[in-house]
Amino acid sequence: MVAQKAAKPQVHEFSTRLERELGDNLVSFMLYGPAVRSEGTGKATTLLILRNASPSALRSIEAHVAGWTKKGNPPPLIFSQLEWQSSADVFPIEIEDMREAHVLLLGDDPLAEIATTKEDLRRELEREIRGKLLQLRTEFTAAASSGKQLGDLLVESARTFFVLFRATLRLAGRPPPQEAEQLVGETGQVVGLDASCFEWILTKIAGKKVPNLQDYDPVGDRYLQQMERLAQFVDSFDATGAETAPEQGSN
Asked: Beta partners for 103?
């Protein structure tokens, strides 16, 4: 799915400068992710593919990229054409996430001739979830005693885990919805998560008023337990199609 959502004027301005400076070296320039979806964030994530991505070839756009990041945008992901063509087995989560929500700004569609496999997806997904879970547990231990810090951690963590939720649904053969609330609900059905524990986070991300979390708030405990359950699900998933969701009482 390619989202038909107009890019912001600053994105078009940036793409014009890249096109002018890079000329024939530019293969593709694409907007993807939060700026295309409705996820409550205006960060413009971009992908830039070049025929030659050597340091000398990047010199002409360094000032433009620096100006772009000063406006609060992440720097573009920059691949050489050969690197991109061989990346399907390394970055299947990212590639399929881009495929579902992107706007091509310049050049050829980089997703048209690249394919991922379910086994590559499961392998990267398990690695990513385990790594993010370890990070979450460490940061949770430090933040739990402060309701403010705990709330900030849950919101930032959820944005990352929503990417992994989408990948989990793809692994299970289900197209992931774009809206965060639906995404959480469907992931809960497939994995066996208690979707109600995300209510505070979803409301906060949507920009609506929510009560402040308390020190050692049980919302944080429940959230961490669901991420542990997600890791168990992916770990036990059979890429041939048989999966076993952990029981609700496993924690």
From this structure: 31
Q: What is the pLDDT of residues 99-123, one digit of tens each?
A: 998 999 999 999 998 999 999 999 9
Q: Is there a contact between 45 and 34 (Cβ–Cβ < 8 Å)?
A: yes
Same domain assignment for residues 122 and 244: yes
Q: pLDDT per residue over 35-80, tens digit each?
A: 887 654 567 899 999 999 999 999 999 999 999 999 989 999 999 9
Residue 207 falls inside a structural domain: yes
* Domain with 30 in it: 9-107
Q: How far is CA 132 from CA 113, 138, 161, 163, 228, in A?
A: 30, 10, 8, 12, 10
Which of 49, 81, 107 is where one domain is finished? 107
Within 88-220, strands assigned E span 102-107
Q: Which residues of 72-92 are buried (b: 16+ CB within 10 A; e: fewer)?
A: ebeebbbbbbeebeebeeebb
User: Which of 79, 107, 135 is a domain's end point?
Assistant: 107
The tally of domains found in the chain comes to 2
What per-residue confidence (pLDDT) applies to 239? 65
User: Taking Cα atoms as reference points, which of 30, 25, 195, 153 lies closest to residue 100?
Assistant: 30
| Neighbour tally for 52: CB within 10 Å | 14
Separation of alpha carbons 60 and 18, rounded Å: 9
pTM attached to this predicted model: 0.82
Please indicate, yes or no, whether residues 132 and 242 belong to a single structural domain of this protein: yes
